[in-house]
Batch of 2 targets.
Target 1
Amino acid sequence: MKRRVSVGSVLIVVAAALYFLVPLYAAFQFSLQMKRGELSLAAYRALFDSDVFLNALTFSLIASAAAIVVGAILVVPTIYWVRLRLPRLRPVIEFISLLPLIIPSVVLVFGQIRMFGSSSILPLTTSDLGTNFLLVAGYVVLSMPYMFRAVDNGLAAIDIATLTEAGESLGASRLRIVGTIIFPNIRGAIISGAFLTLSICLGEFAIASLLNRQAFGPYMVQLGQDRAYEPAALAIMSFALTWVLMALMQAFGTMKPGQRLLPRFRSARNNGEKA
């Protein structure tokens, strides 16, 4: 028996698709009009010819990857331990995880500058390495609500008490249980948190700008003030890059042990021998 699709649901899907795709198409078409009277990829070529663009994008990708790794290392063991041994503290931990949504990022970065400025005991802002560390720490704090929710939902879906008892009965330490049992079982949840962390950190402006880092967010703002067509090309490229990275993360996150990302193609020689 065929299931009938209502007209209302189809209209909602079409309206949502138009709301999403029409501005994207308009930005893409505008990015092709850099040369008067013809459509070209001149705006995209101008971006790739710029060393500032490549350096800013590379820097933001590395900082975002560091924030994802540090956030997962901090959040997963914390939620695991709270769920296993300290369930009464779970409302407190949830409230702390929501603070980055309440406190503006400007307040966060000014607090970092005041705490780790040149007159403090630990003057991290006086060196590039220290300032980069503060940037990654700020990204970890900004992404904490999203990483926390994703990991918490993943841990709620598995029986961590039984898994822990099984690991302890085989002589595994707590650190090994978290690393070899808990992390693989919530890999999909961690990937979901990584998606959100990447999308937040890649275009972040306030923290990177006030820490004077040449990141992708400040570069996009500066380019929008100086140029006309390159910002539209940059928006399309950042959108495509985000989706490609998300697809790769999803592909790696759902891979089974020993599974190849791409199917193995047999060589022509082997096919000839079999024939």
Target 2
Amino acid sequence: MVKVGLIGIGKMGISHLAILGAHPDVKVVGVCDTSKMLVDALEKYSAFPCYTDYKKMLDAERPDAVFVAVPTRFHAAIVNDLLDRNIHVFSEKPFCLNLAEGEPLVAKAKAKGVVNQVGYHNKFLGTFNEVKKLLEGGWIGDIYHFHGQAYGPVVVKPKQDTWRSDPAEGGGCLMDYASHVIDLINYLLAPITAVKGSMLKSVYSRNVDDAVFALLELSNKVTGMLSVNWSDQTYRKMSTSVTISGTSGKIISDANELKVYFNQAKCPEGYSRGWNVKYLTDLTPGVDFYLRGEEYSAQIDHFIKAVQGKVPNSINTFESALQTDKAIQLIRNGQQ
């Protein structure tokens, strides 16, 4: 049984807590939040030991692993404390506010040999993993263009400021929303190493960007576009997709559906020349506890198995998340 602590019970923290609380290999030994109102409510309606000071929780409960689900500006200090105590760490995304914060943590996690993971859940979706297999097999030929997109109705009117509207705390569409698409491009195609131009637009927010548009170049010199808008009311919830064009075909995939076109008779098993459609339900293994989508439970299952030594710590490591932070910085620097 892995003893797990949780710091932060906002939206993602509560989601993680629900999954961890039902996990057969996890004992939740402590939950911490600085909001006494939230802690009082959790103490009243659950059996979890609750704290308002995470250091007191660590001293008292001595967890094997801790989930960090606090605003991004607190990640570096808390993760550093956890690494100093040789505790395995799952941190919410984005990893850090900047490279100066993230690079020492990557080095320390390696030196300590602890399991480290960041919550980029798209890598646990069957559709995107099938895209990865098709690309690694070279089935659509030489890639010459891609388009990564995400749209959703997060900020659809001027509203009271929160940490998500403060750039100093990690708020804004680029950090909070586009980071998912950037991480997915890094994973599927190659790391983003140059930005030919970018625009960060405010639609309803006063201090942060609500939309991000950028022309990207990857380490393999393939170029493509990024288009992300969290003020798009035409979507009911976040919709992430990639379109990838190659000399032998084309892939269009989102979280739920994968469409592939092959222009040659030579195709992978289960596919044929022309358009093919596969669905998430055919491509994603089931999970023991379903909440919001299989990917949220699957990423936690993977982290716990890595702590137990059952799988390698190779998905969404601090190092790969730092690569996404680097691309975020490049996009900021590339504003026109």
